[in-house]
Design brief:
Radius of gyration: 17 Å
Largest sheet: 7 strands, mixed
Order of helices and strands: EHEHHEEHEHEEHH
Structural class: alpha/beta
Shape: globular
Helix content: 40-55%
Distance between the termini: 45 Å
Number of strands: 7
Number of helices: 7
């Protein structure tokens, strides 16, 4: 069992990474492997809605980390999506990556547990948390609960560790994630492995 965590911060070992390492440590304590993948600090293209990924099985753009991360998403048992707050929203590179990952690789993540984590010096966390959670809710994913909204506060890695409630929230995410991936693992090969799938009906507001 393995949980893939995406660090969407432009700072490889900053506050978002620190929150994810707390999660990773607790997952390890409970017998679940994890991997933190850094999105990097280079340009990340936005989705252009071309639909090409539906034909080739990956994003048509290959000049950033999105497709490499997408390949890792295919085999993971659970996911954590972490991002810092920029102007009361997740950082732009993470939003661009999420658009393309869910468009091109969303089918591999369905019916698996996931959580969103945000970090900020002070405010904008709940708005950013809401943005990230919408990806999970539209993709038949199991949203992992915690004891509060999934956020940490601080302006440096050391300050994040001083956010005792935030650290506890991260540990609770990990504990609940471990519980869920173990439950789902035990259901493999049984009728409980996946729910009864209701076909999607797509309509437009104007007709």
């Amino acid at each position: 069992m393995k949980v893939l965590m995406i660090n969407g911060s432009p700072h490889e070992k900053g506050c978002t990474y620190t929150a994810l390492t707390v999660i990773a440590e607790e997952l390890k304590n409970q017998g679940v492997d994890s991997e933190i993948v850094w999105l990097g600090n280079g340009p990340v293209r936005g989705c252009i809605g071309c639909g090409g990924c539906k034909n080739v099985g990956k994003c048509v753009f290959n000049d950033d980390p999105v497709n490499a991360i997408g390949e890792k998403l295919k085999t993971a048992d659970g996911y954590i999506f972490g991002a810092p707050v920029h102007y009361a929203s997740p950082c732009g590179a993470m939003v661009s990556a999420m658009d393309r990952l869910f468009y091109a690789f969303g089918k591999y993540m369905q019916f698996k547990p996931a959580a969103s984590v945000v970090s900020a010096r002070r405010a904008g966390t709940t708005a950013s948390y809401d943005v990230l959670n919408k990806y999970l809710g539209i993709n038949n994913m199991i949203v992992v609960p915690s004891t509060y909204w999934n956020m940490v506060h601080g302006n440096s890695a050391d300050e994040v560790y001083k956010d005792e409630e935030g650290v506890t929230i991260m540990r609770a995410i990990a504990s609940n994630m471990a519980w869920l991936v173990k439950l789902l693992e035990s259901a493999k090969g049984t009728e409980l492995e996946k729910p009864v799938i209701i076909p999607k009906v797509k309509t437009n507001f104007i007709r």
